Amino acid sequence: MAEVTLSKVRKSYGAVDIIHGVDLDISDGEFVVLVGPSGCGKSTLLRMIAGLEIITGGDIRIGGRVVNDLDPKDRDIAMVFQNYALYPHMTVGTNMGFSLEHRGASKAQIAERVNWAADILGLSHLLERYPRQLSGGQRQRVAMGRAIVRDPQVFLFDEPLSNLDAKLRVVMRGEIKTLHQKLKTTTIYVTHDQVEAMTMADKIVVLNGGRVEQIGAPLDLYDQPANRFVAGFIGSPAMNFLDGTITSEGFIAPGIVLPLPEAAHGFHGRKAVYGIRPEHFTLHDSGVPAEIVLVEPMGSETQVTMKLGETQVIGVFRERVALLSGATIRVRPDLASLHLFSNNGGQRLI
Amino acid sequence: MKAELSARRQVFLYGLMCVLLIPFVFPTWWMVTSSVKPISDIFAFPPHLVPQNYDWTTYRKVFELQPFVRQYWNSAYIAALVTIGTMIVSSMAGYAFARIRFPFANTIFMIVLLGLLIPAEVTIVPLFQMFLKAGMVNTHWPLILVPIFGAPSVFATFIMRQFFVTLPTELEEAARVDGLGRFTIFRKIALPLAKPALASVAIFTFLHSWNLFLEPIVFLSSADKFTLPQALTQYTDAYGGPMWNIQLAAATLTALPVLMVFIIAQKHFVEGLAHTGLKG
């Protein structure tokens, strides 16, 4: 186990900058998720930590040691790839023990470690099979087994669940989290799925365009997003945004005036973005009118697409809303959970 | 209706295949049957598809008139060495062109491929001069070295490169993380996965070397060094006329290993071609 530190890490392909000076401290045993949209540089950053990509600038430290110029094999890391990358011509057992064999471990040591990993991951009965004879979930477990068998200082996961179906993804998510709790090895996990990030991480790093937008605990990011990008990326369904102006009467958006909290008074006259999460609307007679566009009953809750003035937003209600398109309901935003962002740059105002 | 169509289609396809078989099967049949006919029967009119009289002494004469066992061995060991050498050179070169980023890799690959466009007849005289200076004329070295570093190896390199390009890079990255260096990745990961391509390279190369004719007649002059295609031309009478039945008996014996290799390895052969995106 080890801490991982990134200082001003940069990556360029020719004149094109991909990673623009990332700083990141990962504590020993922490589970950190790098999340962001496609092309944000999260996989590149992970590959730079692994040593599969050369860094253009900055320092990467693993366990206090600068590893910028070390080969992947000398960084004491293990990586789980998106497409599993199991060696097709080797059995599960050989796949798992291959790195130990190459590092000169004795047969007894290899067998002991492979059996230990296979026990943890429920693979003991599959050790003689070939990867082609396994299901997607089993292959994923073998890839994890290959990583843990060596007892590395850091685990790196590159979108490991993206090839699995939705149901299996939930199961494997739990297994990876349980494995981390058992082994307590520092883990860096890349995903574009914010639900995976929220459910698995001790700490989330939100990346966009090769820059870190925000680093924090999942619920901190959810409750206090640093900017409009993070607010819109974290949470499903996504946060609603309305453009308008902060005034003494409230927030004037196209076709509607929305209530504001006390804290907004210092910004009167300023153009801003009103951010409200779908679950922070409540049905209330004294609320603002909203015209229903679509009602989607989910069982435990109802998702309602509605128009606040001229802006279409989504509300999620515990109550069952049995109304048709075109009807009007009254909704009240929860002012304690309201977000206001600058309309220029999207930084958080309150 | 559908079943009827399908049956008619099958009859048509089988009929077509039977017609297409004629140019491939008939010469082989004619070679084998003529090898046991007296020479007069070979030219009988109308021709006999099945021999009327059998003359098995032709096979004995094959061995009496030439050092045929020695020549058989020459062809076999030369083809084996060329095949092994070409597999080593082409797999390493193909891997390098597919996987190692080095300056002008694609340009160099194109230049190497251009080697395929130069006919062997164009280079044979300079090659002869070269091997003459090296004291290798009337030895087997030219027949071994020219294919390993010449056009057959270029074609094999092309096949291997096309295969290695299709191997997922993540496999190699996983191997790098597992602690393997470039050559070990090639030997322990890439090469074992390249078996189908290697098999087709082996078959192509073996057949090419076994059938090689121009180079032996240029480089070799003593009968005990001849390879089989060259030896076949030596079954002549006192006036230089071919002794057809003996020649065809020798040809039948010569074709046997080729047929065996192809029958045993045809699955790999087809797989290998499929991997290269080429069609046979």
Automatic annotation (TrEMBL), chain A:
Protein name as catalogued: sn-glycerol-3-phosphate ABC transporter ATP-binding protein UgpC
GO molecular function, a single term: ATP hydrolysis activity
InterPro entries noted in UniProt: AAA+_ATPase, ABC_transporter-like_ATP-bd, ABC_transporter-like_CS, ABC_transpr_MalK-like, ABC_transpr_MalK/UgpC-like, Mo/tungstate-bd_C_term_dom, NA-bd_OB-fold, OB_MalK-like
Predominant subcellular localization, coarse grouping: membrane
Keyword Metal-binding tagged: no
Protein family per UniProt: Belongs to the ABC transporter superfamily.
Entries under NCBIfam families matching the protein: PRK11650.1
Membrane topology: Peripheral membrane protein
Any one GO cellular component localisation term in the record: ATP-binding cassette (ABC) transporter complex, substrate-binding subunit-containing
Xref: SMART domains: AAA
Keyword terms of this UniProt record: ATP-binding, Nucleotide-binding, Transport
Localization annotation: Cell inner membrane
Domain ABC transporter: 4-234
Example GO BP: carbohydrate transport
Top-level taxon of the source organism: Bacteria
TrEMBL record, chain B:
GO cellular component entries: plasma membrane
InterPro entries from the UniProt entry: MetI-like (IPR000515), MetI-like_sf (IPR035906)
Subcellular location: Cell membrane
Main location: membrane
Keywords assigned by UniProt, alphabetized: Cell membrane, Membrane, Transmembrane, Transmembrane helix, Transport
Stretches that traverse the bilayer: 12-32, 76-97, 104-128, 140-160, 197-223, 243-265
Membrane topology of this protein: Multi-pass membrane protein
Gene Ontology BP annotations: transmembrane transport
S-adenosyl-L-methionine in keyword set: no
Domain ABC transmembrane type-1 residue range list: 72-265
Highest taxon in the source lineage: Bacteria
Pfam families assigned to the protein according to its UniProt record, in alphabetical order: BPD_transp_1 (PF00528)
Family annotation (PANTHER family): ABC TRANSPORTER PERMEASE PROTEIN MG189-RELATED, ABC TRANSPORTER PERMEASE PROTEIN MG189-RELATED-RELATED
Family stated for the protein in its record: Belongs to the binding-protein-dependent transport system permease family.
Protein name: Carbohydrate ABC transporter permease
Organism this protein belongs to: Phyllobacterium salinisoli
